[in-house]
Protein 1
Amino acid sequence: MRRPQEKLRAWWEIQARAVAGPDDANQPRRPKPKTWWTAIFLWTEWTIKWAVVGAGRLAVFRLLEYTGKLVIVVALLMYISDNLPSERRKRAIVDAWNVVGLQEGKRGNSRRIEAIQFLAMHEVSLSGLYAPRAFLHEIHLQGADLEFANLSGANLGSAELGGANLSSADLSGADLSGASLGTAILGGANLGGANLSRAKLNDANLYDADLSKADLSSANFNGANLGEANFSSANLLKANLSGAELGEANLSGADLGEANLSDANLSGADLKGAYLFGAKLNDADLDDVALSDAYLSGAQLIGANLSDANLSGADLSQADLGQADLGGAKLSGAKFNVADLSEANLIGAKLSSADLSGANLSGANLSGADLSDANLSSANLTGATLIGANLTGAQVTEDQLKSAVGP
């Protein structure tokens, strides 16, 4: 008759063979402890091993095993698929740069346009791009980084450059006629002598840019930042500069005939000798602006701020300055014949030797103004305030003064 210990051992062996199967060569070997305290540890470990072997026989655990392996394979394939396009992209970018370099100095090559567009589309920086006199007509480079690029003399007619960074770029003599440059950054760029006729530059940043002698006729600068930009001798005929920032800008000798400068900020700008025939400057800020010898005949300056502006020798004949602020302005020798200055503020204005013949000064405030030697013949002074005004040598009749308040 077997002892209880032998019976227990036999039972364990039967259970183990049932779980592992008759052909399992990887069955855990039965421990042979020599002491009672090692027996506890070895038999516990042996039991756990059998539990693992038994679990391995269950379908659910085998499924989990194969699923794990499948996940590893899928992850490996995904890694390969992700890296292959990346490598191809790198090779394509290198090839594109090679095309750009090989076509340098050549004109009318479509491969170069495609290569540059490819680089821009893949957000590759084109900073410092050297492409003078390149033929890039109708190229699409929206949002491209072209900082410090040399595109002098390049043909960029009808190009799409909206939102592009062209700060400090050299675009001197370039053809950008009809190009779209809305919201583009052109701060400090050289656009001297460039052709930007009909170009769209709305909300663009051209702070401190050089646009001297550039053709900007019919260009759209609505809401653009043109502060301290150089427009000397530029052609801005019929250009739209409404709401533009032109503070401290240099517009001396510029042609602004029929240009729209309504609501623009021109405070401190230099417009000496500028041509502004028929220009719209309604509600514009021209505080402390230099307009000496400028031509503003027929210009609209309704509600404009011209306080402390220098308009000495300027021609404002037939201009509309109704309700304009000309307080403290320098207007000596200026021509205002047949101009509309109704309800304008001319307090303390210097109008000595100015020509105001036939001007409409009804309701205007000329308190403390210097009108010495001014020509006021046929001027309408109805309701005008002349308190403290200097009329020494002025050409004005008693009948005219009767309709005024003062002097």
Protein 2
Amino acid sequence: MSSEHEPLLVESAAIEPIADSEKKISPIPLLPALFLHILAYTQVINLTQQWLLLYICQEALSDSISWEECRKIPHVQASTAKWEMTLSLLANIPSLLSVPLLGKISDRIGRKPIMLLPVV
């Protein structure tokens, strides 16, 4: 049990040095998965943007002009950007709410069960 007069931090001589083999953790094995994730995410963004643009053109202008002319209209572009931002914010609300809860749970039961949760 510690008292108020004992230091909270231990002296530097009491800390054991980390072995050289423990220091060198390479991120190379993560790169293929990270590359595929970023590639898939960019493809989804492009498809979503094109779908929104097409939908807004059809709804706002009711097929009176061509696709090439419609996508150049500033208010159609502004409306597409607004809807894309709204969808992006709504898609991130579940993670905004779940990350603090899962962080608290992982402090109690450990990281591995929480990291395996999406797999199940």
